[in-house]
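idk why but the lab printer keeps eating my pages so im just putting this in chat instead. protein + zinc ion:
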Amino acid sequence: MKGNYYLGDGKFEMRPLPQRPLGPGEVLIKVEACGICGTDVHIYHGSKGSAEVHPPVVLGHELAGQVVEVGGGVDRVAVGDHVTVDPNIYCGKCRFCRMGKKQMCQDLRAIGVTQNGGFADYCYVPQEQCYRLASQVPYRWGAMTEPVACCLHGMDRAGVRQGDTVCILGGGAIGLIMLQLAQLAGAAQVVLSEPVEQRRELALSLGASAVVDPGREDLGQRLEELLGAAGAGVVIECVGGVAAATQAVSAAARGGTVLLFGVPKSGTSVQLNLDDIFQKELKVMGSKINPDTHGRAAALINGGKLRLEPLITHSYPVERLEEGIQKQMADDSIKVVIEGCGI
Ligand SMILES: [Zn+2]
Ligand SMILES: [Zn+2]
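predcted complex ->
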């Protein structure tokens, strides 16, 4: 057993993974695919993830694989099951866990963040974290369950309804998942704004009503032309940057909702147009991780409701993780997945 350990300061190293007997309720998963997340890129650059990272640790929280061994008392999954893992483990005891806001848990632990995760050939996981994948679903799609689950939480927060107009800022993996979820939620029109042409084309092929190049076109003007009214009812920012967050507020219609979903670098702040927020009576909100949405995300993927293959543009074996992270930052990639181990 081996994993690609993150050592801090942007350094990785393949090391043996300590083998141990399974605890009660624990399962061993042979990792088949693990996605590289924007938060892994942030961790690589020295920011924290959903929780604090203490190297050395194996990152990778978007994993899918096969159960190969089960500990005592395991009754939810069996050897041979294909599963996707919800990485986030809540304490269940803190003030937030006890008031239905587990994503705010004060003692949040996460597989691939605070304990060894999926950039390895095997991973130890509590059975409660496992959700079954249909056998015909490729593991690389299963590895997309966590980002889909996070997007579902954001969609729940934003409350997209049938007939709403939606504007998505950013056409990376998250923007393109949000696009599909907005369509499934019954949005009348979904406009996606993205500077990279290849991503705009993909958005159109995935059913976007229209795409906008924010470098060359005026988003507000285009929205008015496309939607026949000023601004979109729901704006979903999937970039995590200053320009997009500022634009999100101005792209919202009167009475609209702005979901700031993209994960920013630590310390990022923007100037808010308070007058705009007052005059338009905007609801501006954040969204963190995937409380109680992993099962619904797995159900959507098992049910064939999402097109995930076009989003997965690159794959690398686990020992080339750092190259994968570099590629995840590049404009020509959408989602990079780590699949298999070459040594
Ligand atoms: Zn993630
Ligand atoms: Zn808690």
